[in-house]
Structure formats: C-alpha cells, structure tokens
Amino acid sequence: MAALIASVKYAAKTLTSWGAGKCTYICIYIFICGVLQPCNTLALQYTQQSKEYSNKKEIVSTMVDPKRVVSYEDMLKVIQQPEKVIIDVRNIDEIKATGKIPSSINIPLGEVQNVLTSMSDDEFKKNFQRSKPTSSDELIFYCQSGRRSSEALDKALKLGYSNSKTYLGSWNDWSSRQQ
C-alpha cells in the first residue's frame, strides 16, 4: 500500500491553487480494511494577521484526532445507548427542514459552552428530558457536514468533557445512508 503524505503547508498551497478559500473545509477519508472512513478534517480559513499586513492572508489548519471520530456504524450502536449523549449543534430551522438522528438533543453551536457550564441540572433535564452530562460522560457532536461538530468537540474538550467525540459525517452522511 502506497501513501502520499504532504505537509499541511504543501496541502494548503495546493488546495488554495485549486480555489480553496475562506471557510473551505476538507474531509480526508482513508480506506481501512476495504471501508472508507473519515480520518481528519483540514479546515482552511483565512485570518488577518494585523492591520499593518491587512492584505496578507494565512491559512490555518485544525485537525481532529482520529480517536475522537465516530463513524456511521458507531452511530447505529450509540443511538441504542441512552447513557451516551448525542448533541446536534445545528440551529432549530435546519433540524425542522431535515430531521435529526434518533435520541439526539439539540444544542446549537453558539449555546454549547453556556449550556454545559451554566445550565443547572434541573433546567437541563426540563429542556432535554435527560440528566445533564458529567465531564466523564461520552458526548457525541454532529451537525450538517462536520465543521460545527468539530468546533463543539473542541469547546467540550476545553471545558473538561474528556470523553467527547464528533461524527464527522454528520447529518449529510446519516441521511444519505438511511434511504
């Protein structure tokens, strides 16, 4: 098996030359035992370095640890495990338009930090009909395509939810396989 491993700098330069720009997200898949699996997300985004260099742009990459990525097959099992908390970070209008993964709760990305840190146990139970997760519970985030769920994962890990994961395929993958 041959593999081409490129540096992030080279990959960013190549993707930019192909037209990747502000808020372009690339999901990298690999074959493992004949099955296509998401590996990492390389998020390309332009950031302004300073007023002095306002025309200079830089590509920033963020990678998701493969151990924190949940597959579609994993999700089929997780929806049957009520102790695991599946969190849809899309806004409510997106969910109304498309549907949601069974047993998931909706906490929009912009509210994740506040809900996990400030919402009382009673208020959480009232809003989501389940106990508020502890820092040791497994949280699995998803969205439409995997970008926002990766952001939510990062927030949860920074808040101490060390068993958090992301379903990078998210709703796009789930809905395409449920047909």
TrEMBL record:
It comes from the Eukaryota. SUPFAM superfamilies: Rhodanese/Cell cycle control phosphatase. Pfam families: Rhodanese. One of its GO terms (molecular function) is thiosulfate-cyanide sulfurtransferase activity. InterPro entries: Rhodanese-like_dom, Rhodanese-like_dom_sf. Residues 80-179 form the Rhodanese domain. This is Thiosulfate sulfurtransferase/rhodanese-like domain-containing protein 3 isoform X1. It comes from Papilio xuthus (Asian swallowtail butterfly).
